[in-house]
Every structure is written in C-alpha cells, then in structure tokens.
Amino acid sequence: MAPRLDVRKTYKLFVNGEFVRSESGRAYRPVAGVNVPRASRKDLRDAVRAARTAFDGWAGRTATNRGQILYRAAEMLDGRRLQFIQELGGGKPAGREVDAAVEALVWYAGWTDKLAQVAGTVNPVAGPYFNFTIPEPTGVVGVVATETPALLGLVRGIAPALAGGNVVVALASESRPLPALTLAEVLATSDFPPGVVNVLTGQRKELLPWLGAHMDVNAIDAAGCTAEELAAAQEAAAGNVKRVVAHRNGELSPSAITDLMEMKTVWHPIGT
Length: 272
Fold this sequence. Notes:
Elements: E1 13-15, E2 18-20, E3 27-28, E4 36-37, H1 41-60, H2 63-79, H3 81-87, H4 91-109, H5 115-119, E5 121-123, E6 129-137, E7 140-144, H6 150-163, E8 167-171, H7 178-188, E9 197-200, H8 204-213, E10 219-221, H9 227-238, E11 243-245, H10 255-258, E12 261-269
Parallel strand pairs: 7-8, 7-10, 8-9, 10-11
Antiparallel strand pairs: 1-2, 3-4, 5-6, 6-12
Helix pairs in contact: 2-4, 3-4, 4-6, 8-9
C-alpha cells in the first residue's frame, strides 16, 4: 500500500471575517514547504474598507460586550495552546509566549468598561453647566506586529485597540507569520463581527507605506517597525495628520488603549 501523502495547509489572508487568497495570487515561503499569501496594495485597501464599514457597529457596542468578546478570544487561544506552541518552535519559551498572549487578551478585556471612569473626568467650569471629558475610539488602526515575539507582539497590538472600540488592520510578522494566521482562525470563532479585525501577511516594505498614506486609516501602532520603517511610516502619515504610536516596551498598560483614543468634551446644562 502506498504511503499516505501529507496534505499541506493552504494559508489565506483574513479580511472582512473571511479567509481569502491574495488578490495577486502571490505567495512566499518563510518556512520550508509552507506557502504564505503575500498581500498586495489591493488587499490592504479591501481590509481598510472592511474595517471602516465595521467601525460604527463595533464602537457602538457596550464596553461590557467588547470585553466579553475579547475574553472569548482568550478562551479560544488557550484551547489551541499546543498548536501555537508548535508553530512558535516548541519548548518552554513558546509556552510562556502563548500564556502571555492569553493573559494580554484577558487583561485588556477587563479594561473595556473602566476606561471612561479612569481616562474621563468632570471639568470645573464657571457657569451652570456640567463639562465632561470622555474617551472615544479613533477609528481604523493599523497595527504593525513585531517580528519576534510573533504571536505576543501581535496580540499586544490588537487587544488594546479593540478594547478601546477601534477596528484593526494588522500586518503580521514577515518572517514568522504562521502564528498570526492561526490567531486569525481564533478570532474568526470568537464572536468578532466581520471586518473588526483583519490580518495581512506579506512584505512590510510593500504594505507599510500604503498603510501610512491611506486616508481612511486614523492611527498606526508601529511597535513592530524598525527605526527606518517608523520614520517612513511617520512621513507617510504626515500627509493626512495620522497618529503614529510605538509601544516598544511590550508592557500591559491602559495607556496602550488611551493612546489610540480621542478625548471628547461634552457640555450639559445643570438641572435639565
């Protein structure tokens, strides 16, 4: 009897809640025997369009519900822990990275319903009015994942953006994209509406300039950029006054959420 042939997995981009092939049909091989889709400028535009369409619905959900969905993602990721460990190279370091990614999702899930109280304030004014400062989501956030750690770097980029009510277009690690593509499978089964999270793989030098210059992207978390890439992203973003942040320390912090939010001031008459 002939030996059974291995059926290799066909990886796809994650755009608008679906797994799709790259528009150009291109692929690259960061790992021997594995074809990873190489996203094009058209794929990036499709992802941004999907995110923009999903923004109002996601931002309009209650903070508690966003926290529940992030917590569900943590549950699903933890349920596939062994698969992620294998894709990260195995061993204790890989296990610690997966555990830290689960912790990050749970940690940011717990912040969703506390942001208004912590980041907001009541401002004293000379008149019969209340004056409130309230955080609100920025919109479409581009997340550039770190090359290493490939999984944890991506999770620590998308989780705070989502916790604040933003929607995400993420560029996965170019050299180690498989954990990001598997994370997309986790997110697809974690109650996120289509378009809230979009994951692209490919060459960063090709995609990053268009992400920075895109008029419908409101902010970029460039934690995974090199100094040269960060400068290029800032230059591209300057044309449309796009916010560019870089949380390089990798620590869990509420500022990672509020840095991607806007502060809105609301006036309200006293007694009405």
